[in-house]
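Escalated from tier 1: zinc ion holo job.
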Amino acid sequence: MTVYLAVGAQRVHTWLVRTPELRLLRGASAALSAQTDINAPAMKKVLADLRLRACSEAGNVDGVVVAEADSLDTARSAAPRLVRHLAGALPGVEWSAWRVSASTYASAVAAALQGSVARLVAAPHRYDQPVADACRGCGAEMRGLSNDLGPDCAARQGATRAPRALLDDLKGDWPDTFDDLAGRGGDPQQRRVRAVGRKESSSQLALVNADGNKLGSFFEALNTFDLDVPNLRNRAPGDVDFATRTAVEIAASSIHEPTDRHKSAIPHYVGGDDVLVSVPAARAWTFVTELIRGFSTLQDTLRACLACDIPEEGAARELLDRIAELSLGVGVAFTHATHPVSDATVHAELALKAAKREFRGQAAGIAWVDLTADGLTGARAGRRWIQVVSADEAFRQLLPTPVGASIAEQAALEVFALPPAARHRLGQILRDSSLGAAAGRVSTWAGRRAHDGAAVPKAISQLAQDDTDRLRALLSRARWWPRANREDQP
Ligand SMILES: [Zn+2]
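Tier 2 regenerated the structure:
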């Protein structure tokens, strides 16, 4: 048995985005990464002083330090000191620690998921000071004596490097402001070409929040599995983090254009199975579908690992089934570049929850909310979140020759093919019609289009009868859908 001590940052997203300044937000991502890097000399010394060793099985996840100790007593006395060290470096973060004796780190994670570990919590610094003394960077802490930034923002400002080894290969500088990112490299020629039919598209962003589905069930199954699977148990936690980081790399390069002056994505947080990234709005759908595709390679990695332990598939069936369930849920908030990122984070999290709820965590799905248009009112109909699409459907509709597997999917293709003015008109009809009248009015509109010589949008008429809310969601998706028609006929 090994004694594991894990210290992790809590509510990371909320802490990261409490400043509206992108420089301080990027500094926070970098500082969190650097301060919890188990391979950094400073952290190695801290661990050695506490008689701890870095745990290699856990990977090197941003915001998390996992160490091994010789005894529970050593871990017990080291835990508060390690937490104090991290809280000293990043005073705004809330840290939580747990310790447990287990055969592997994967078993320790399963124990933590079940709550059968000893925990320690350190609350972040809180100040009850007049507003006049608030930090300029975040307003959530007291300003320093010789600096208008508080200690947490000073730590952010001091960390200018990018989070470790993320998007290194992507050409271009890190954008300094959200406007720079939204402007997609600032190339005026490209801006004009890419934004056909949409003047404002170079000032809009998407905040993407993604999170793994069914990882808890996988780790629990791994922990209780009867046979010895040392390869899988040792490698799985690190493989999850690696797959997530690789997926972000792949997705970011897929949206990068050769003429971009800046990197095409800003990863605010990527750790474990958790992703928070800003990208230009017009590239968001490509980014999220590639992110989901990239993360799905985790299944292959874990299966290969398991095959080394148990070559015979039948004996490994239970674990293979759990591995096949792993996927990514994604929430997207479309906003103007000047929209507070803290508010965008709240909306992206709501969307992520909706994506997971819609598919019960059993398949990759994407839910979105468009704060540049209808906001939450458009995303929901009553208690139902309507702006949601399965990853499979999105993949089919992004193929060179898109495929519509159902009436609703055919309607999606018809909506994307409509010229912007026709989509606008259809949206007006849906908005202005009472519940019972919408289908009839859409049908009249479709008939008129046919009379004028345009293709008959049959599936749209059908969907207007079956599910008007779904049709409304398609119009919202078309706003940023890469294959949507942007050109009106003269
Ligand atoms: Zn501050």
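The pocket of zinc ion is lined by residues 135, 137-138, 141, 149-150, 152-153 (CB under 6 Å).
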